[in-house]
Amino acid sequence: MEKVFELIKDNPYITRQELVDKLAIKASAIQKHIEKLKAQKRIERVGSSTFGGHWEIKE
What we know:
Layout (H helix, E strand, L loop, with lengths): L1 H9 L5 H8 L3 H13 L3 E4 L7 E4 L2
Antiparallel strand pairs: 1-2
């Protein structure tokens, strides 16, 4: 989960697919990590999740 957070922190415009490619784990695992980070209020999605949005770091 921390690797996902660090990649999002480094690039708030990173896509889920880019996270999958960089970490070589399944998309479902990435989604679980993202959901945990959102539940912990460490990240928040701003704008569209499919077109032009970005992540906002809350820490």
